[in-house]
Design brief:
single chain, alpha+beta, Metalloprtase-TldD/E_cen_dom, TldD/PmbA_sf
């Protein structure tokens, strides 16, 4: 794996070769990852995995025609061939009047801020194994746990670099550390499975492996002997484990590409009152040690903190340069790149601001409702906003979270769900999208 500076130099070299091969404009990305993981099951070593890879991707423009190509061979001869093939592909591609590099006057320029996304500590295989063993032992020690799907611990690092032919060059590195455990509780046909995990940039920010394991075990046991629920309209409360997915649907619908294609349920909703005025959703790519923090986007534009939802209203669309040209606007610094293909759109560290009441207070006046802790399936229509997901969780009876329930569906429409949404004050900060417990009144539950 190259250093960020060496990776930037290699990408710059490829851009130069593309221009020499006949490209009018070009950009190149270098992406490298290395990781090591240990899997333990029933106290025994089940798997050891070590992976390393690096790729370089090239996008070229010949007039309004473009092509993208990638390779894991970074030798000079391979880069020459890559550049020549990319230019030949672009000349044969159809014209696209919206294609092109980001506006030159908007490019970010270094030195770039350091958001402490890289942890130089390499724990090594023995420490990873000890962490996985500790997590599984803690999970299996929970009364009622009868089997294990295993526990794992991993560590990794990455480097990303981007260079464009019109003046941008930059790179940065990151790291990742993770612990997870999954166990089974109960016997026979009444078994239930659940898990817990945590992912951070720095190893020091991880909870103890025992805490992860104990949480996995407790979650599995509390799901034993689930009941069925009656069908009908009722309040549905989404645990933080799943509430982030609802904001994820919002973000997908805010993509400028979806708006340009007129395939978003938010079409014509810019500035509309979608949520209660108190709802605030923030995207912060500059969060220290954030799992998605980055100093620039996938087109070399600066990133910045922004309010996606403010006073309950959509403030704008998330746009790369192509979408911005289609919509007659400016790109927003949300472009994302892999080692191949054109940029897409991605947010960074997103959170919904915490509410003002506790989780207990949020459910205290619910006579009959559901707390959802797991969602199943992908029943969401991004064009209409219709929402229907399989779920499991717990019944809420007279303001108290009661027995577990399973095999039911929660349904509604996302626009109506947004309008009826109330957040609790229990915001957590360890996911890419962090959302507190959410209560949504008026949803339809389909059970017995």
């Amino acid at each position: 794996m190259l250093s960020p500076q060496a990776a930037t130099d290699r990408a710059a070299d490829l851009v130069s070769r593309a221009r020499q091969a006949g490209a009018d404009a070009a950009d190149a990305v270098y992406v490298a990852n290395a990781s090591e993981g240990i899997q333990i099951r029933l106290g025994r070593l089940e798997d050891v995995e070590r992976s390393e890879g690096e790729q370089i991707g090239l996008r070229v423009f010949v007039g309004n025609r473009s092509a993208s190509i990638g390779s894991s061979d970074l030798t000079p001869a391979a880069l020459d061939e890559l550049a020549a093939r990319a230019v030949a592909m672009a000349r044969a591609a159809p014209e696209d009047r919206f294609a092109g590099l980001a506006p030159e006057e908007l490019l970010s320029h270094g030195p770039f801020a350091d958001f402490d996304t890289f942890d130089p500590l390499d724990p090594g295989a023995e420490a990873l194994r000890a962490a996985a063993e500790e997590a599984e032992e803690a999970a299996r020690a929970v009364s009622g746990v009868t089997n294990s799907d295993g526990a794992s611990a991993s560590a990794g690092s990455s480097v990303f670099a981007l260079v464009t032919s019109h003046g941008f060059a930059g790179g940065y590195r990151g790291s990742s550390h993770a612990i997870s455990a999954s166990v089974v509780a109960g016997e026979g046909a009444s078994k239930q499975r659940d898990s817990a995990w945590r992912h951070t940039r720095h190893r020091a920010d991880l909870p103890s492996p025992a805490e992860i394991g104990r949480l996995a075990g407790e979650r599995a046991v509390t799901r034993l002997k689930p009941a069925r629920v009656r069908s009908g309209p009722m309040p549905v409360v989404f645990d933080p484990r799943v509430s982030s997915s609802i904001v994820g649907h919002l973000i997908s619908a805010m993509s400028g590409n979806a708006i340009a294609r007129r395939s978003s349920f938010l079409l014509d909703k810019l500035g509309a009152q979608l949520f209660a005025p108190s709802i605030l959703i923030i995207d912060n790519p500059h969060k220290p040690r954030g799992v998605r923090s980055r100093p620039f986007d996938g087109e070399g534009l600066p990133t910045s903190r922004s309010n996606l939802i403010e006073d309950g209203r959509v403030t704008g669309w998330l746009m790369d340069s192509a979408a911005a040209r289609q919509l007659g606007a400016l790109p927003t610094g949300h472009a994302a790149r892999g080692s191949g293909g054109a940029p897409g759109v991605s947010v960074s560290n997103v959170h919904m601001a915490a509410g003002t009441i506790s989780r207990d207070a949020l459910v205290s006046d619910i006579r009959e409702g559901i707390l959802v802790t797991e969602l199943i399936g992908q029943g969401v229509n991004g064009v209409t906003g219709d929402y229907s997901r399989g779920a499991s969780g717990f019944r809420i009876v007279d303001g108290v979270i009661a027995e577990p329930v399973a095999e039911f569906t929660v349904a509604g429409n996302l626009l109506a769900m947004f309008a009826q949404m109330t957040p609790a004050d229990d915001l957590e900060w360890h996911r890419p999208i962090n959302v507190p417990t959410l209560r949504i009144d008026g949803m339809t539950v389909a059970g017995d």
